[in-house]
Every structure is written in structure tokens, then in C-alpha cells.
Amino acid sequence: MRAIEFFSGIGAFAEATRNCEIEVVAAFDQNSAANSVYAHNFSLQPYSRNLDTIKLDDIPPADLWWLSPPCTPFSVRGKQRGLNDPRAVSFLNLITLARTATPQYVLIENVLGFRDSPALDQAKLKLEPLGYYFIQHNLCSTQFGVPMRRPRHFVVACRRAGARERVTLGNADLQPAFEHASGNAAFEHQMPPGWRRSQAGSASGTADLRPAFEHAPGSAGFQPASSGSSPNPERKMQLRDFLSDDSDDLFLPNEVMSRYERGFDIVDPSEPEAELICFTKNYERCMRASGSLIRTKSGTRRVSPEEILKLLGFSDRFCFPDQISRSLRWRLVGNSVDVRAIKFILSSIGVIASEKALVER
């Protein structure tokens, strides 16, 4: 299967598809630093193209499009201008191009606010008449046993096959376990007409989803996901297992702590239930609501970019080129995606095999 990674960043999608039968044939991003990191790790140089105006002739044929568009138009931390935000233009242009290119799959990742956005409404309006079938998930890193909250919304748009077939995706067992940054537990799994929730699963607090799909694209690899792909590992990983960098320059000066400590989210990794809040690209510049700090015996420090990569599920083989400064690294990882969530989405629709590695660091 050939795939294209739009808004590719440092390559979370390419990382998720290592060693499987998906070939990323092109990537697109205008951030030169992100592109250098991508090329360094995947031997593929992303195109630095303005996706607001890109033409179909500039996009190679592919079976799957992965889109991770700018989240500011839909984020509660932004002005939530939606389609009135200039940063939404590129997404709408790509959806328009998808009408002609008709890839088998269009996968989209964004913040939770994207779920009810006019941008998603426009995508459905343009693609559903062409036979695209939409499935939506909210997923968070905590659902994979990772001690970090990073709730995101995922959309799968898949073209229906010509034949009327019923395909069951199996037991997804998606537990309503993740939390918003506000601390309120929430989980929604939007399914098309025909899905069934077992009463036993609901009573136990676990959403045992057995969706029955009509007109599902059986000829396009829409296969049942095994129980091994469930984002509910038996073991929650400990925060201390992800931390390995005690460099002096990660620690905050005493004067900063004495003045601003009350506004920081400070976590003690020795506590079994310790969880970090979501990291953003502004983590270094503005630590309030942009990520957690770590309390140690030596003082309070930031979480390093390399440690955040581990939390996001990147493999040990992924690394930054030496010329990328720590400041840039923080900005780049703050814009990235949880690799485990991408693997889960791909395995749920049968594009890649389900792996126990979904819950491994």
C-alpha cells in the first residue's frame, strides 16, 4: 500500500509504518527543521510545498492519505476561528483534491475540537457523495498505558466497495479511560448506524463495541481487528521508566520556581499514578499549561525532547540531527502525534496487522 503523509512534521506516521507493508511515497511540510529531522530518520525528503495551493499534479498516486493539519483553528487554546482561520485553507484544499484523487483511505488527526468543527462537516459533505464512509475515534496516550495525557481525535474516511458486504471490526474494547486537560473523564466513539454496544460491556464500564458495517470496503483490507489491538493494556507504564536525562540545563533556576511554582504542573515520578499533561510546542517558552515539570531530589526540571519522544512511542532508532537545537526539538515534538494511536487506527481498519508492540515504548 502506498501512502502520503501531509503536514508530516517529524514523521509520526512514517514511524508508525516502519517494518510493515505501507510505503510512504511522499511527505509534505513547510517546516524546514521538521523536514530535516524527517529526512534524517526515513531517508525521504519531504516536499516543502504550500498546501493551500498545491495541485493534484504535484501529488503522486497513493492508496492512503494521512493528514495532520494545524490544530490552532480548532483548539480551545486558540481563537477557535475554524474555517475563518487561514490555517484551515490547506486542509480544505486537500479534501477538494481528494475528490479527484479518490485514495482508498483518508485518515485525519487533530485536537478534540475538530470533532464538531465545520471543517470536518465540509470533508463529509465533499467525500460522502463519492462513497466515503466515516468512522471517528477519540484516543489518548493514557489508553495505551502511557503516563501522559494527549487526547486527540482521529477520523477514518474509507471508500465503500461496490458490493453490499457486512464486515465486523471485532471487539475494540475501547475503555472510557482518558481525560481532558481539565480533568474530566470523557470518551466518545462515534459509529455509523448498525453498531451494537453490549450491555455487559457497558455495565462494567468498558465499551465492548461490536460494530456491524453495511457497505464496508471489504475489498480494501477492511479486516477485523484482533483483541491484541485494544488500547487498554493490562499494565500501566511508570513515568520513571521514561525519564533518563538529568542534564543541568533542564533544571529551572530557584528564582523562577519561587515566583511561578504555583502556576506549574509539577509531577513526582516516584508516585505510581504520576501522569504528565499534554506537551505543546510552547513548552520551553511558556510552561503554564504547555506541559508538566518533573520534581527530583536535585530540583525541578523540564522533560527533555528525547523523553517526550519515548512517551509518544517513537522507537530508539529515531533521533534528531545534531544541528537541531533543543529549543527546536521541543517545538517539533510538541506538534507530533502518538505513534501508538496511529498504529491502533491502522490495525483497527486492517491496514496493518495488530501488534502487541502497540503498548510497548
Descriptive account of the structure:
The protein is an alpha/beta fold and 361 residues long. It folds into two domains: 2-231 and 337-359, Rossmann fold; 239-334, DNA Methylase, Chain A, domain 2. 21% of the residues lie in helices and 17% in strands. The chain is built from nine helices and 13 strands. The protein has helices spanning 12-16, 32-42, 89-101, 118-127, 199-203, 254-260, 305-311, 326-334, 339-348; strands at 2-6, 23-28, 64-67, 105-110, 132-139, 152-159, 166-168, 189-190, 195-197, 209-214, 266-267, 293-296, 299-302. The protein has a seven-stranded mixed beta sheet with strand order 2-1-3-4-6-5-8, with no helix packed on it. Strands 7-10-9 form a three-stranded antiparallel beta sheet. Strands 11-12-13 form a three-stranded mixed beta sheet, with no helix packed on it. Strand 3, helix 3 and strand 4 (105-110) form a beta-alpha-beta unit. The protein starts with a strand and ends in a 13-residue tail after the last helix.
Using brief descriptors, characterize the structure shown.
361 residues; alpha/beta; Rossmann fold; DNA Methylase, Chain A, domain 2; 2 domains; 9 helices
Q: State the shape.
A: globular
Question: In what range is the share of β-strand residues?
Answer: 15-25%
For the biggest sheet, the summary is: 7 strands, mixed
Number of structurally distinct domains: 2
Report how far the terminal alpha carbons are from each other. Answer: 26 Å
Low-confidence stretches: 162-229, 356-361
Helix-strand makeup class: alpha/beta
Give the helix proportion (percent range): 10-25%
Helix count, DSSP H or I runs of 4 or more residues:
9
Q: What is the CATH topology of the largest domain?
A: Rossmann fold
Q: Say how many strands there are.
A: 13
Radius of gyration, whole Å: 20 Å
